[in-house]
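BUG: 3D viewer hangs when loading the predicted structure for this chain

Environment: internal workstation, default settings.
Expected: structure renders.
Actual: progress bar stalls at 90%.

Input used:
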Amino acid sequence: MENSQIIIYQTEDGQAIIDVKLEQGTIWLTQKQIAELFGTQRPAITKHLSNIFKTNELEEISVCSILEHTASDGKTYKAKYYNLDIILSVGYRVNSKNATQFRIWANKILKEYLTQGYSLNEKHLQEKSQQFEALKQTVRIMSNVLSAQELSSDEANGLLKIITDYTYALDVLDKYDHRNLTIEATHKQQAFIATYAEAMKAIQGLKDKFGGSSLFGNEKDESFQSSIATIYQSFDGQELYPSVEEKAANFLYFVVKNHSFSDGNKRIAAFLFVWFLEKNHILYREDGSKRIADNALVALTLMIAESKPEEKDIIAQVVVNLINGYN
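C-alpha cells produced before the viewer hung:
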C-alpha cells in the first residue's frame, strides 16, 4: 500500500460521498467530513470529540494529526484530521443509520484494507476497468473482421494501426494517472525559430482571413513577447525546453494563460501552436495526416485554460506526448 491514498465512501442513500484519506496506517477525516458522514452538524461532532477526550477514552495526541489537503482553489492547506479509532468512537455516539452503515463498512472493508493492503480504490479501479474493457472491445472487433473476411495487406495494416494508436492513447492516460509521463521521441533540430515580429504577422493574417473584432490580437501588455522569449530560454548553457515539441507545448500554455490580448487568446494560442509545428515541419506525419487532430487541439486548449498553475508541467508533458514521434 502507498504511504498516502484516497478511497471513496458513499452512504447508502447517496447523500454523502466522502474522500477518505489513507495515511500513516489508518484513515483520516476532518470534523466537517465526519459530520457529513454521520448526517449531523459539526457542533455535535465537536461535542462528542470533547467528551471522548474528557473521559480519557482516547488521547487526543494519538488520534489527531495535522495533515495537508488541497482545497477547491487548488492551494494546499493544513487541517486537523481524526483517525479511524476516534471516527468509530464518534459513530457509536451518533444515533443515525449512516453511523451504523459506516461502522459496518469500516470493520469489513477498511480494516481489511489497512491490515492486508489489498482493498482497491473503487473509483480508480472503475476507471481502469473501463479503459481495459474498451481496449478488449477493440481487439474483439478487430478479431471479428479478420475472421469474417480475408484482408489485403493494406487493410490488415490499417487495422493494426488502429489498435496501435488506441493502445498508445491508453498508455498516455496510464502514465498521466501515475504522474510518470516522460519526454521521448522528440525533435531536437529546429527548422524555424519564432520571433515576435513573425508571430504578430501570423496573428494579423489570422484576423484578416477569419475576421474578428477590433480588439482581436490587440496586445494588452508585453507578456506575449515574454512568452516567445521564454520558450527559448537557457540556463547554464542548457535550453530550458530543448526540443521543438517542448517549445510548442509551452508556447501554447503561455499564450493561453498569459491573456496577452484583449480578445481571441485561446484562438490565437491554438493557431500559433499549429503555426509553430508547421514551420518546424512536424505538424504532419509522413503519411500526410495531422499529428494532432482538430478536436484534440480544442480539448487541450480548453484544458490549459481551466488548469491550475501547479499543473503546468504535467499538462505540457501531455501535449508533448500527443505530438511526439510515437504518435
